Structures are given as structure tokens and as C-alpha cells.
Amino acid sequence: MTRALPGKKGFWGKVWDGVKAVFTPTVYLADRQAETLTRNTDLTIEANQRLEKSRQQLRKQELALQEFQREANLEFQAEQNDLNRSLQSELSRLTRELQTQEALLTREFQASEGKKNREHQEKLARLNMELQAELAKLNREFQAKEGNLNREHQVELEIFRSNLQKWCLEQQKELQLELKAIDAELARELRIYDRQTAIEVIHEQKRQNNSPIWLIAEDIVHSNPNQNPIPLRVFLSPPTLRFDRSGDGNDAAKGFPDMEETLGAYLQQFFEKYSAQGRPIEFLAGAWTSKFFHSQAATKSMFRGLKTEPTLILESAAEGDYFNFRFGYWGLNWATYRYKSAITMLPWREVLFDFAKDRALRWKEKRDKHIAAGKNAEEFDNRYGMEMVKRYRRNLEIIENERLCIEDGDDPSEIERLYSIHQNDYNQLRQFIGICHCIIAGLLADEYFLVHVSPEVRQPPLLPQILPDLLQEIPEEEQDKLAEIVVNFYGNLYNLIGQEESAWLAELRLDLAESLLGLPKKHWAEAQIFESVKAWLNLKKPGFSKKPGFWAEGELLDALDSALTIDDLGYVEKLNSCLAAVGKNRQLSVVDSCYNRGIQRCREEKYSAAIVDFNQVIQINPNLAEANYNRGLAYAKLGQYQAAIEDYTQVLRLNPNNANACNNRANAYYKLGDYERAIADYNQALSINPNLPGVAHNRDVAQGVWEEKKRQQREEEERRKVEEEEKKQKQREEEEAKGQEFYFEVITVNAQGREISRKPGKARQKLEQLGNGINLEMVYIPGGMFQMGSSENSSEQPIHQVTIKPFFMGKYLITQEQWQAVMGNNPSYFKGAKRPVENVSWQDAIEFCAKLSQKTGKNYRLPSEAEWEYACRAGTTTPFHFGETITPDLVNYDGNNPYASAPKGLYRQETTLVGSFPPNAFGLYDMHATVWEWCSDRWHDNYNGAPCDGSSWETGGSDNRVLRGGSWDDVAVDCRSAYRNWVALGDRHWDLGFRVAVS
């Protein structure tokens, strides 16, 4: 645009010198420190508290990781111990079985012939072989499970470590945004608080008429109470005001053009671009009412009234031959304002002269070309008119005088230079000053929307995108100088943000690079791209910044590429876009990065970490068969063959002709012992690639193992069938030994004696023939444990647990016909063949058992007291096996004396036929009442020291013998399952009887 004379700095250079002096990092940092000192002091304590809270959270996570590792180790050790115990238990069991079998074989050997001896030896050898095989199997299973647990924990820990690193970074980002949001929220709250004070200040300024904008100040304070971000208010104080209420504001330098409307139009158009992209700016053109108020005093006065509103004041003035441009600026609730001179002592007349000289030189250049082309000069001059030609020639003469003056070493400004100024020269001056206003306003607006708003509405710089259109008419070298100032300014802003929000610096730097792509030269954006990469590496690879030396661009991208994860997809997409925009061919891929890192970790045998990498690849691209294939290899190396099989299966879904996947899946099936599937996969691999090394051999090995396995399975199945048949035969013999099944109903009553349940029951019994058609029915009583005794009487205490072995017990009380068949007499008072024998002593009962044993060849006896109560209860814990009480319909007792809430009933005053009343769940009849039943035990006053194995208590106590069950002549309470009684062993009475037992 301007062709300055030799040795003379152009006016653009003077402008950039002034702007650079304001926006260089050193000056800007000093200003920022002064502006934010007060605000930061208020937030420091809260920020430190939050940072400390964050550190504590991070520490908790570290402790959680340590605790997880400790628990994992404890779980592993516990499982290992369980396996050891299981192995030892199994060894002990097998050893006991072996010892039992050996003892059995030894006895059989001693009692058998040579043929049986050989059979026993063979069986012993087989048992030894089975024992050794079982031990080997258990040992293999233990070692395999131990290895699997260890490897599984490695993968889990690697995944946990990766997730913890991601969590820590996310927490760091969230905390930094939260602190910034708290800062912004505090500023908004203070704004509400300070508004009343601001309104009072405005009223005072209105009263004293000492503010240039008091007419609208109160409206500004009352507007936009909740808007986020709060609009930036911009005021314009042009060199001259068309309507100055003071009458003293239009004393601009003589010849300086009016430009209030022009500047207003320039800025309005400029700010509309900001508002259209989410950066609200309220440009209040015409609000400045008087040039009487100016400079820092006016800014200070406005700051008192509008400190709650982010504000920018653009103030310019022409004094004599010089033009000055200053600005005042503050953010939300700043402690003080910023006031700077952007352009100082710019010789505006020289600027006009430069425009005029440039116009004259261009006219001469066109005229010379016209004449050189053989055309008429007069025709060219007539085109412009003689008056304009005279002006151009006069300006050219002045230019020549200036050149001669400079050659003589004189100052051209000291000679008379009456340049002819065209209206377009004035328009160019207006345009130049408008551009200066837009650039300064754009820099400060970008600072506001980047630094001084809450994070959720933060916006990257917009000026770099608009700048090329603003500077179309500016020489290229001057554009480079301005771009350098702008980029340095933004770089400084991002450095400030990075001090507080380091976790976001990489993304923010990349946003800046994207903003700078609009500049004609791309090296500014390129520089920010690699600053972003450095910030990313400093964040994700803490040791990066400590590495010495200069990092070339390729090295930076290689370092970045080696550390990318799935969480960086958004960053990489924008980075690739920026790299392409600046002409770089390099494009990064998270998939390739994770995949290549996984391959490298496999080479380094870091299989757990490799699996984490392949997981991310598959999550991004589920159809990348290579990722599944290599993850399968890693799982196989860790012994996790089932997971490897799933990966190889996915590979074959995506590519059915992948012979290597078939082969590797076959290997995994082989490791798991699934030989049939392994053989099928080996065959499939060979059908795809018959020349695949080692597959045929592995298939043949698997085939051999599978055939042997099937042979062993057949043998095992045959052996299992034999053992199962032997077991069933033994069970049949045992069941037959228990006798034939018989069926009955089991009745349960409540405390009132009403029936509440009637269920079918069954038991087994054996018949003992006593001659003349008289049989003794013995019921099988299964073994078990029960709580013997009750809390009702001291003789029934303490309640204690007793274990009973299986035995047989008389289904009924011994009847008179059974006594007659064995003893040859009948001592009973109440006669009747099917009535219970009574009037017998304990000694009589013992004699009967001895004769019965002699008669049958079996060892009949009286039941022990524990056996009797166990048999009576038949699994119940209530006072009676019928439930909470009894009635005369169920038991033969003195019905005049009931138990619990049962009603009174029949008192029969004699014995009844055996089996006249319902049985208990074991199938035993008349266990309650009818006659007392002798037990084998000596009498003891309580159960202290009583046996717990169900045996008869033959030591201590007295010679008296135990009676159980009650009788027809007793009250209900004496008939309880736990009730105990005694008489002398020689006593006889019409209510004393018994039933027999046999083991």
C-alpha cells in the first residue's frame, strides 16, 4: 500500500511497534499479574483445599490399587491353600481307601486259595495305579489352576492400571475445570453483590455530570443478569464527536477527517462476526457523549460504575500532527482496570502524505506504460482531467524534492510539502484507523472469551480467521509482523491457561492452531500444532520433558503415535485435520498405534499389557481380524485358552480361510483336552493350506491322544458301570437287610390337641418268627444326631447332642403272646394275647432278651435311653412326637390330666391292644403311655457326663434302672418324649413293660 522513501520506517511499522509494546509477553504478563493479584488471593485458599482434596482422592485410589493387589494376592493364596487342602484331603481319602482295601485283601488272602490271591494282587495293583493317576491328575490340575490364577490376575491388574491412569487424568481435568468454574461463579456472585454499589456510583456521576456514558450506564448494569457468558460491552470514543454535549470535544487537529460514523460501521460489522459465533459483544456506538472526559480519568470514572460488567473502551484522539489510540479494559469484577496506549504519536499527516505519494507513483507508472505502448500521452491525461494531472505532477515534484533532501542528509519534514490530498486518501486513513481499532478490539475480545469466562462457554480465538480479510490491502511483510504479534499474544494467553489447566493445554493449543489456519502463512498454525503435541506428551508421558536435546517434528509425532489410546480419538481426529491443513502428509491412527504397541509388547513378552492394547483396537474396529488373532496369541501365551479360542473363532467369522487361526484354535483345544475339536480344526487348516508347517504332525498326535483317551473313557465307563452295578447291588442288599417297606400315616396336633397335619409315612421292618405263627416285627431306625433332653425338669438337663447309629427296634411293645412264646408263662395283670406284657422287672426283660437271642441267633437287647428318646422323637423337637400335646384319641393315658391346652378326655384305666393308636414318623407304635418301657441304662439324676454316642450309660449313678414313655395310669406330662423315670431293677408292676432292640 505504502512506498516509503529509503531509510524511513513506514507508518505500519510504527503502528506495529506500538501494538507490540503493549502485547509482548513481558508487558502482558506484568499487567495480568497486577490485574489478577486481588482475585487470586480470594480463591487461593479454596483452590488449595480442592487441590488437597484431589490429592487425597488420588492417594485413596493408590491405596485402593495397593489394597486390590493385596486382596488379589490374599485371594490367590487362599485359593492356593484351598487347593492344597483339597489335594491333601483327596490324598488322605485315597490313602484310607487304599489301606482299607489292603486290609480287606490281606484278610481275604489269608482265607482264600491261590486263585483268589492272584485276583487280590491284581486288584491291589489296579488300585495303586488309580491312586498314582489320581495324584498326578490332581497335581496337574493344581499347577494349572495356580498358573491360570496368576495370569488372570496379571491381566486384571493391567486393565486396572490402565483404567486408573485414565481416571486420574479425568479427575485432573475435572478439577481444573471445576476450579475455573468456581472462579467464574464467584465473579458472577460478586457481580450481583456489587451491582447496587455500582448503581449508587452511577447516580452520583449522573448528579455531578462527570461520566461520558452516564445516560445509559444504569441500563447496562440492569441488563443481562443471568446471561452466560456475560456480553463484553464496547465503547467508542472517536477522534471527534458529531454531537458533543460539552461543546469542547471537536477541537481535533486541523485537516483531520471526521470518522465517528466510519469507525462505528467498521466495528459494528466486525463485532457481528463475533456475536454470530457465540461470542456476545454489545457495541454501544454513540454512547460516548463528550470528549471533555478522556484518557485514563474517563476510564477510571467508568470503571467505578461498570466494574461489574466486562468492558472495553476504544479511545482515539488527533492532536496537531499526531494521532493517539488508547484502550481501557476490564473483566468481570476485576480489582482494577487495564489502560494502555496502542498507537502513540503517529504522524497522521505523514500517513496521508504516504497515501498521496503512493497514488501519484501509481499514476506515473500507468502513464509510462501507456506511452511505452505507443499511445498518445494527451489521451491518457484527458482521461483524468487536467486539474487532476496537475495535482499528480505537483505531488511527483514534492516526492523528488524529498528524495534530494534525503540525499543531502536533511529532514524532509522541514521543507514545504503541500501535497494534494484526494478524498480517497482520507478514506484510506479512515480505513487504516478502523483496521487498527478492529485488531485491538479482536485481541482483547479473544482474551475475554478465552480466559475470563467459565469453561463451558470458553471459545478459541476468532481474530485469526477474520484477519486475512482485514489486511487485504496491507503489504505482505507488514502482515507477517502483525501475525507474529497476534500469535505471540495468543501463545502467552495459552501459557497462562496452562499454568492453571495443564491437563487441557494440549486440546487448547490445538484449538489455537485451528484458529490460526486462516492466516495466509501456515507456519504459525504448524508451530501451535507441535506445541500441542508437546503438551500432550508432557501430560501422558511424564518423563518426556526430561529427555535432553531437540525433538524434530517426526520424532514428536512418533512419540505421540506410540502412546495413543482409545481416549485420544477426538484429539487425533482434530490433529490429523490440522496436519493436513498445513500440508503435512503424516496422519495418525489410534487403531494403528494400539495395534503396533500390542505387537511390540508381545515381542517383549508383556502379554497382559498387549491384551489391553488389542482390547482398544477391537473396541474401535470390531472387524479387524488381525487384532483378534494377536490377542488370541497373547491369551494363549498366558494359558487362557478359552479366551484365545473365542478370539480365533471371531477371526474365522471374519475370514473363514485363515489357516493359521484354525491351527492356533486347534492348539488351544488340544491344551484344554478337547481333542475332537482340535482334530477338526487341524483338518480344516490343512484343507485351507496343505503346506502349513507342523499341522499334520500335530493332528496325528492329537488323533493318537484322542484314540487313547476314548479307550480310557471306554474302560472308565465299563469300570464305572461295574462299580455302579456293585453299588446298586450293595444298596439292594442293604435295603433288603432293613426289611420290607410298610406304610402308615403320621399325625400332628397343635397345643389344643386339634389335628393340623396328616402325612403319609413309610419305613422298613423285618419279621422274627417265634413259632406257632407268632412274629416279632423289628423296624429299621436310621442313624442320625439329635438334641437329647429338655428344659422342663432338672433330670432332663443339660440338653446335649447325641449321635445314634442305625439299629432295629420293636415296632410294638413286647406282647403277651410273644412273651409266652419265649418264656413259657404270662405274668400280666391285664390279660390279652395282643396286649403288652406287663408286671415284668428289668431283670425279667434282660432274661427275655437273652432267651430270644438264643432262640434266633441274634443279639437282642433293651434299647439305651438315648436310643429310646431318639426313636420316640423320630426327628421332632416338640414335647411329643404328635406335636405340642396328646389326647386320649392318640395315646392311652390318664385323660383327666391333659398337657398344654388340650381338653380332658377318656381315662381307660387299663392297657390296650398294641398298635391301637397312630405311629410316629419312624413307624413305631405306642411310644407314649400304655406301659412304661425299660431301658438298659443305670439311673443318673441328670445328663452331666452322659455318653454322646447313643450307648447305654453303665457307669456311676445307682442300681435303679431307667423307665421311659409313661403308662395308662400316668398324667400327660409324664408321657413326654424327654420325660425320665426309674424304679428298682427287681420291681414288677402292672404298668411296667418293654420293647427290644437289635443292632
From TrEMBL:
One of its GO terms (molecular function) is formylglycine-generating oxidase activity. It comes from the Bacteria. Residues 777-997 form the Sulfatase-modifying factor enzyme-like domain. Residues 51-148 form a coiled coil. Keywords: Coiled coil, TPR repeat. TPR repeats lie at residues 625-658, 659-692. Residues 707-735 are annotated as: Disordered. Transmembrane segments: none annotated. SMART domains: TPR (SM00028). This is Sulfatase-modifying factor enzyme-like domain-containing protein.
